[in-house]
Amino acid sequence: MRKRHLVPALIFSLIAFVIYAVTAAPDLLYGDAGEFQFTLPLAGVGHPTGYPFYHLLGWGWERFFGGNPAWGANLLSALWGAVAAGVFYLFSAEAFTRLMARLKWSTGIGWLAGLSTMVFAANSTLWMLGTQAEVYTLHAAFVAAILGAALAVGRKDHPWPIWSLALLFGLGMTHHLTTILLAPALIIFLWMERPDLFRFKIILRTLPWVVAPLVLYAYIPLRAPASPWLYPQLTPTHTLSLFENTLIGNLRFILGLGFSSEFGAVPIGQQLHQAAQLYLLHFTWIGLGIILLGVLALAFEGEWALLGLTSLSFLLFQLFNLLYGIGDIATYYLPLYLIATLWLGMGLAYLVEWLTRMTTPAWRKGWLFGSILILILPGFLVQRDFAQLDRRQDRDARTQWEDILSQPLPEDALLVSNDRDEMVPLIYLQQIEGRAPHMLGLFPLLAPTSDWEDLNMTLKTALATGRPVFLIKPMPGVEALYRLAPVGGQVQQVIGPLLAPPDSFEAPYTQDLRWLGIQSTGEVAPGETLSVVLYWRATNRPQSVWHSFLHLVDNAGEKVAQAEDHRPGGLYLPSPLWRPGDVIVDRFELSLPPDLPSGQYRLLAGFYRPETETRIAEPLPVAVIRAP
Fold this sequence. Notes:
This protein has about 625 residues and is an alpha+beta fold.
């Protein structure tokens, strides 16, 4: 990377930092961002893979934000997003230098690198991640720095020392393990450009620069004992251990083996569709066309080493994203957008070259200046997405938790949500602000055992502690299995599991379910509405989602009315979450026809699979009624 490019890179970084910082979220956030808002100032350990380099840098940064660590953590992402933009300028300038040498251009490198950098800095994913506490902007900075350093090491004139690339790669590995995906491309590129580096002595001297930074992973076992959120205390005698501080436990944590089940969890076709949508969303068809032209430019001009470096890195990152089915996979596309934006710049350069060849070399500067029109693309995308990028008013997490903690809750309350992300701000309030110190937030998959397998098991485990249990938000469907009592705001207390009615009986329906009884209110008369409650007991765990029905039939078996079909348990406790012994209450409103003839009718109830509309058993007669 050349000295003359340092000043414009710094300018781009400063501009990007101001933009990201001004639009950054000012307070608490949900999810991983909310987690980093307390792990950074406390030098703690969050979720795998630990991100030790990020935490060490963040702990130092947070010394300047003692009054508002949450905002400080968000600004750290803005800082690294800005660094990523500046380093991208250096990387792209180095890449343009190689292409321009083949095109025999004497000017235009800084101009095209600057345009490409503005497109990259306006990338909605980079901008969004630059407004919240996250690890991905630093990862993008490392990817740009490693690729740029590879080009600098591969230069024929005044190459960088190989140890500089090795050190960057090693540090990148201490931050985000997907950095390893760059290794094959780096090796092939250096083999093509600097085969002299592959002598045994040079390799032996280089390896320590890669390996030495990995010592930073010692941060995890050293700081885990000082991270109380890893050891939540359910009862005085039962403390959960969410981190195994052994050699094997640390290796599993650092390698993220707990997420291994996410590989292949989503069909590849669905992942390909998502990838196509993301590229189209970030670049539009016009941008994708210019990106393709950039790839062709490197091939047509014989810049095989640079094409191999970027394309192999791109393909490996993309393959990883297609196989990894984690929910926030869209954030993993940032390195791909970085490489694609470089190709876009290359395509822009080649478009100028084509126009010059079709006219006259004297027009090159004019065509080059006209390439500024590419800024219409980020301008359009920013205008489209600005409402999501501007986080200045994002106080949703603070508002929700202020409302929750303002309710009359016991000091030892267990607070339950179906979503881990919603619970994270509570730990910040406890660890940073010293509030509600004895409360505990619980959620499914809190620990990798059957006790926390889903929301139903989480509620059972919470109630078994004897501590008072509360839902922090409405979760329609929970009332189908549990007795609830309103507290205030959106908070409800979970009194306990539903019980069978006193006059219940057990009638077989299927091997998974027994009918316990029926209750109804309302007048049996034309035009009236009957409120019907059916009680069931699970004897096995259903393997699929069921919907329920209630039909009114005459003596000939003809349907004369039906209640609205629905999913008992709603979205939160559907049938696959029921456990043997659970009592399920299913409520219907049955509107009787206004012209209902007098006579005797039967109520038939049951369940069916909605995807095939096939009943799981024959309808069960649950009542006989007579219309006057």
